[in-house]
Structure to design on (704 residues):
């Protein structure tokens, strides 16, 4: 088991290294660099910048060096906790995204929790009471959840909130808490607002995992060992929880990493629609402004979250599935 | 099996199912699934809309109704205000009224003015597929304009724009799926047929692409496109980006199927007969698992459509004057616009219906792909 964990760590680190290269290449892709974007913005404002000034800016920022040197400089800084400088905000990137990252993390993990609690419990219910009214409702809701893009759902909630309650369901804090430092009251206020984005982000994932849970559990319930245990007089609830559910939960846990990846994928767009103080709107703005260090740090952050999620899901799988523990090490 | 009917051959009674081809068996299995059949019908309608958008839409996507800005959907009536029935449906003319409190412009039906809706009427001229000149539209009115789904801020007819957007969005999906199919066949083919280092490298690549959160990646790639490109080029490059990330499912399927078929006798005999590698893969191995590939293609269709919608919604994908579902929803991005023009969300309904239909049809095809399984 230990060697398996070590192998997973090595593969996670390799993936991270590759991702850092991809992130850097992506940032470099837009034609022109930040200096060009800066100059065109300034010239729209009527300020004319000479070519010499632009070149001086480039040298100052190190944009005249070959690409691999820029990459080494960047990644070296990242490893030391220096994510570079955001030219759009005139502050270090780590300062710009600091608080927003914690909000994105809270959002992602609450969504994950919501998804799994709901998917597992409704999945069990749907499988045990197959073709009951509740099962049909869950199936229909599941299909709609899968087919409705998160941002559309967010838009509809926004509209309904506006129409019925005359208030915006967007944002994560009440107005009086927006600019105050963290406190217990602010935290509770956030919890109150959290359900909307969590619902929006978790909907598709819940629908998907629910279907998986229901299907695998149905397969298990028809197996002989269930009949045998029932014939042996095991109480129904204990029988259900102890064997079939434990089997059916494996594929769900195995896809935890992908689930997190999907949540992270959907987060920016939902964050934008619901105007959350998360990393999403910042990321989109950074891409539009070609603020490369900011965008790069963000891509790196998103991917790191997913890699960590996959890693956690591997470890969890080893804990709950003994076959995984003994497969390689024996 | 499904079909127990018999046919007579040379006086012998033979069960039809015993001599049916693989595709016939698939069809029999597929048509048993009602939801899948309904979905196929809905997708057929979408296809017709995208093929004949110019004819079905009463106007062109840029035409404005200057007297009817940001106005709600018009109702089509059969009964007038005195309860009298008219065989030909009609709409009322509308008058602008300013709300004395909010000062917002409202539109009120002018019941004294009935405008009949005409079917197959002449209107704006267009060129169908850039070839056939015509000015016949499915429906229209003689006086003013008919706006079944209301209008946007500039007074453009939402119904017309959704019809044109359906064409763009569906075609993005279709071309994207074709690209993904080609890349998937090539990469999966190399990996599965040759194995070894090529397989190892391609598998790693697929795993890597899978482990990256896709939307941020799409966004970053799309943001890299120059703003001054012509719309057609943006359209094509966006499709290439979407399929460049979306081919992995298909590649994996092709690889695993090729792996299991590689040792079959018919492959060996094809090789002994001197077939080239490409011919063995495309002519001999591919047809034996074509049905699975069709399932995968159907299932990946909605993903590509959704991806394009999301990108355009963010302003990173397609842009005006090209209209896709995402471009239309872009106008409904903020609360004030939504509160003023909730009918803009009708576009969302089209997105959801299309994706649901693709999902259900994919389910039906998946069951049908292996008709002898049960």
């Amino acid at each position: 088991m230990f060697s398996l964990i070590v192998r997973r760590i090595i593969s996670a680190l390799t993936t991270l290294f590759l991702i850092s290269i991809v992130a850097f290449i992506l940032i470099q892709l837009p034609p022109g660099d930040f200096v060009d974007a800066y100059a065109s913005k300034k010239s729209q404002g009527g300020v004319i910048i000479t070519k010499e000034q632009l070149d001086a800016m480039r040298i100052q920022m190190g944009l005249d060096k070959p690409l691999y040197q820029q990459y080494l400089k960047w990644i070296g800084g990242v490893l030391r906790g220096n994510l570079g400088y955001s030219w759009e905000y005139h502050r270090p990137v780590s300062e710009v995204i600091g608080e927003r990252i914690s909000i994105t993390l809270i959002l992602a993990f609450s969504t994950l929790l919501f998804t799994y609690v709901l998917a597992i419990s409704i999945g069990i219910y749907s499988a045990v009471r197959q073709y009951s009214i509740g099962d049909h409702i869950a199936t229909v809701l599941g299909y709609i959840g899968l087919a409705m893009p998160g941002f559309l759902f967010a838009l509809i909630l926004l509209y309904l909130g506006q129409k019925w309650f005359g208030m915006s369901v967007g944002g994560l804090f009440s107005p009086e808490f927006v600019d105050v430092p963290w406190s217990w009251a602010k935290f509770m206020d956030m919890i109150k607002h959290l359900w909307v984005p969590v619902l929006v982000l978790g909907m598709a994932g819940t629908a998907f995992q629910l279907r998986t849970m229901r299907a695998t559990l149905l397969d298990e319930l028809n197996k002989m060992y269930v009949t045998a245990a029932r014939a042996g007089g095991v109480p129904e609830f204990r029988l259900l929880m102890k064997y079939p559910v434990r089997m059916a939960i494996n594929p769900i846990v195995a896809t935890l990493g992908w689930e997190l990846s999907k949540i992270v994928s959907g987060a920016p767009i939902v964050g934008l629609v619901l105007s959350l103080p998360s990393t999403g709107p910042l990321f989109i703005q950074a891409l539009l402004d070609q603020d490369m260090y900011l965008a790069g740090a963000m891509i790196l952050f998103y991917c790191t979250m997913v890699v960590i999620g996959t890693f956690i899901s591997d470890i969890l799988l080893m804990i709950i599935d003994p076959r995984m523990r003994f497969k390689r090490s024996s | 099996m499904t079909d127990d009917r018999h046919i007579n051959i040379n006086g012998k009674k033979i069960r039809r199912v015993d001599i049916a081809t693989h595709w016939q068996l698939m069809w029999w299995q597929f048509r048993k699934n009602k939801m899948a059949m309904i979905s196929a019908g809905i997708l057929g309608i979408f296809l017709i809309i995208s093929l004949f958008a110019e004819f079905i839409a009463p106007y062109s996507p840029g035409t404005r109704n200057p007297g009817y800005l940001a106005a709600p959907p018009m109702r089509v009536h059969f009964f007038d205000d005195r309860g009298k029935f008219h065989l030909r449906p009609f709409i009322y003319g509308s008058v602008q009224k300013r709300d004395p409190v909010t000062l917002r412009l409202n539109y009120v039906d002018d019941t004294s003015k009935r405008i009949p809706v005409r079917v197959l009427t002449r209107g704006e001229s267009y060129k169908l597929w850039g070839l056939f000149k015509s000015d016949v539209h499915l429906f229209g009115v003689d006086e003013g304009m008919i706006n079944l789904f209301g209008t946007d801020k500039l007074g453009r007819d939402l119904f017309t724009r959704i019809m044109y957007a359906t064409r763009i969005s569906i075609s993005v999906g279709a071309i994207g799926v074709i690209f993904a199919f080609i890349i998937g066949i090539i990469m999966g083919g190399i990996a599965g047929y040759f194995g070894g280092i090529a397989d190892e490298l391609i598998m790693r690549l697929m795993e890597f692409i899978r482990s990256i959160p896709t939307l941020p990646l799409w966004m970053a790639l799309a943001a890299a496109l120059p703003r001054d490109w012509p719309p057609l080029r943006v359209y094509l490059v966006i499709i290439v980006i979407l399929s460049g990330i979306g081919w992995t499912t298909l590649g994996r399927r092709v690889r695993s199927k090729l792996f299991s078929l590689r040792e079959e006798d018919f492959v060996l005999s094809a090789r002994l007969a001197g077939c080239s590698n490409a011919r063995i893969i495309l002519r001999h191995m591919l047809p034996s698992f074509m049905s699975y590939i069709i399932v995968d293609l159907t299932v990946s269709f909605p993903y590509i459509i959704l991806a394009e919608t999301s990108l355009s919604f963010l302003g990173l994908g397609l842009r005006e004057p090209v209209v896709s579902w995402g471009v239309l929803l872009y106008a409904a991005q903020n609360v004030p616009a939504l509160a003023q023009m909730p009918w803009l969300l009708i576009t969302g309904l089209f997105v959801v219906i299309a994706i649901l239909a693709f999902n259900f049809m994919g389910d039906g095809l998946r069951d049908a792909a292996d008709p002898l399984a049960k």
